[in-house]
Amino acid sequence: DTGVSQDPRHKITKRGQNVTFRCDPISEHNRLYWYRQTLGQGPEFLTYFQNEAQLEKSRLLSDRFSAERPKGSFSTLEIQRTEQGDSAMYLCASSTPPGTSGSNEQFFGPGTRLTVL
Amino acid sequence: AQSVTQLDSHVSVSEGTPVLLRCNYSSSYSPSLFWYVQHPNKGLQLLLKYTSAATLVKGINGFEAEFKKSETSFHLTKPSAHMSDAAEYFCVVSDLASGGYNKLIFGAGTRLAVHP
User: Fold this and answer.
1) How far apart are the first and last CA of chain B?
2) CB atoms closer than 10 angstroms to residue B108
3) What share of chain A is helix, strand, coil (3-state, %, to 5)?
4) Neighboring chain A residues of B101 at a CB cutoff of 8 Å
């Protein structure tokens, strides 16, 4: 399967602990996005990478959240000192470089479901 | 700012009957619009997209949507529902951000139930 993959698929943690999620985009995609989806809502944009550069961060991304894409391939999303309000599905998506066919289409991974107790 | 409103949070149909999922959008310029489907425990899958070409867009699995600028609508339809269509459907508008990328803005979703 050459789609977007995310690991882990599920994470249960206690309040105050740190968690890290990983996303592996489709190999030729240089754009990578993180979204958060809470129960009963549509996904909300968190942050965007073009290659290794993080070009935009949503106001939803508090100081406890950090995302990296060190070599322009996989990305990690870390949440420090988790709170119960962080419980959500965290989705990763990727897309082709601008100007290429289908560059406005984002391909989504299966998500990581985080539960903070 | 771009936004989408999905007019129904839940839609229930019988197998073999037509499906209509309603979406209105708000955009200050000609938008790109999408419909995504989300099955339980699976990733979001693109059903179809409108990018200022033909106003009637055909997608996968027999779905189609019509872009109506005068009504600012992009409703999703299917002539005959199948049990496998039961899922959450999201209407999405693409906002061209200052960084030159497409930020997707999702509606709240419509849960489609299909009964035998």
Assistant:
1) 41
2) 14
3) 5, 50, 50
4) 31, 48, 50, 55-56, 95, 98
**What SS3 class is residue B84?**
helix
Query: In A, which residues are within 8 Å of B51 by CB distance?
Result: 104
Distance, in Å, from the CA atom of A41 to the CA atom of B13, rounded to the nearest integer, reads 22
Chain mean pLDDT for chain B: 91
Residue type, B55: T
For residue B91, what is the nearest residue in chain A, using CA coordinates? A42
Q: Would you place residue B97 in the very low, low, confident or very high pLDDT band (cuts 50, 70, 90)?
A: low
Model pLDDT for residues A42-97, shown as the tens digit of each residue:
999 999 999 999 988 998 888 999 999 998 899 999 999 999 999 999 999 999 87
C-alpha span between B42 and B56 (Å, rounded): 27
B105 touches chain A (CB under 8 A): yes
**Cα separation, A20 vs A38, whole angstroms:** 18
Q: Which helix (H) or strand (E) holds B14?
A: strand B10-14
Token pair in block for residue A59: 């106001």
Chain B residues within an 8 Å CB radius of A24: none
Helix and strand element counts for chain A (H, E): 0, 11
Confidence of residue A112 (pLDDT cuts 50, 70, 90): very high
Which one of B44, B52, B91, B94 would you mutate to disrupt binding with A, by most A Cβ within 10 Å of its Cβ? Answer: B44
